[in-house]
Amino acid sequence: MLRGLVLDYAGVLTDPDAAALFEALDLLRDRGVKTALLSNAPGASGPAKRRLAPFFDALVFSGEVGVAKPDERVFLLTADRLGLPPEHCAFVDDSAGNVRGAVAAGMVGVHHTSVNATLLELDALFAEESA
To answer: What are 120-129's pLDDT values in tens digits?
Structure first.
């Protein structure tokens, strides 16, 4: 059962249609799914972190933690920051190599090619269980 969602920033959350992804993050968080941003950026300013904070339980920047995607260690670190084992997390990135790194670390990988395709995949992965 997936209980965590990890997203890349550049190429995913910078997509022109990314507003729909932010809406999906809100809905998933309301259902108890933990979320993290994982970026190979050196870091982010205080204002940028404050803008992202409402959508994420953890913000992980490679420049701040000393390890970058696709190294498995950064995925394990991110899952740990969510308090989840990696096999309970899905990872979304526009780089197939980064997705392979996440899968090697035990996460479910989603290769982002468009917002609509990613939303369909996330809908299937995080389908609400019927009572």
So the answer is: 999 999 997 6
